[in-house]
Amino acid sequence: MRELIKILDINIDKLNMRQAVERVKELTFDHSSPSLVVTPNSEMLALAVEDQKLAEILNSADLATADGIGVVIASKILGDPLEERVAGFDLISLLFKELAEEDINFYFLGGKPGIVDRATANLKRDFPDLNISGYHHGYLNRENQQQVIAEINEKNVDLLLVGMGVPLQEKFLANNLENLNIGTAITVGGSFDVLAGEVERAPLWMQKAALEWFYRLLQEPSRFGRMLSLPRFIYLVIKSKYFKLD
Q1: Is Repressor tagged as a keyword (predicted)?
Q2: Most exposed residue of 9, 67, 206, 208, measured as fewest CB within 10 angstroms of its CB?
């Protein structure tokens, strides 16, 4: 039975990284119905306060990890602390490492044209035994969306990684998951940019010091507006603790 905490009325699983990896594996090996794994961070949770459809999708997921230190801080404010953050990029990195020699087929969907190609090439270099059955950029229209879905279904995909940004990736999966012959779909945000070498992750010491957001801001100053969502998120969490959210 899942152990959950609600943050801004969104379910977050109380799992550490090791437990999350094992849970994804369980879902992936079970092909009885497609499973959905989401990776909410503070920006996504704040957005879900205003986007009821996104909130419903997040709460329908089979696993929701605490992707970001802001979510962990919120859990402490609410008096039900999460053990650690379970960043989506770290989660999929462990899955690549641990499933590289397993009979598991991956498919990558997302990113700008050319990005997911480089990400795939880099992963094949680092994990030669990883089964990557296909990939496609995330700029879909009605015609190529149906082609991609057909390709995924033909390739017996176990793990589908979708990185289209929030909330497009969540809504794409909500609209199409029941038509996909897969084990599990995971929303991965901008992970393909990192895997392609387009964006660098913060040094490990900055990750451990909860300063990854600052490193990302130095790389992409245009993200400053998005960073303002964190103080708003903390305000909403404090408000939700003492007052009902409107």
Answers
A1: no
A2: 208
- Amino acid residing at 187: T
* Whole-number percent of the chain with pLDDT over 70: 87
Is residue 232 situated within a structural domain? no
Q: Where are the beta strands (DSSP E) in the chain?
A: 4-7, 10-13, 35-38, 63-64, 105-110, 131-136, 159-163, 184-187
CA distance 132 to 91: 17
45 part of a folded domain: yes
pTM for the complete prediction? 0.90
Q: Is 73 helix (H, G, I), strand (E, B) or coil?
A: helix
| Domain extent for 78 | 4-189
The pLDDT tens digits for 87-118 are: 999 999 999 999 998 999 999 999 999 999 99
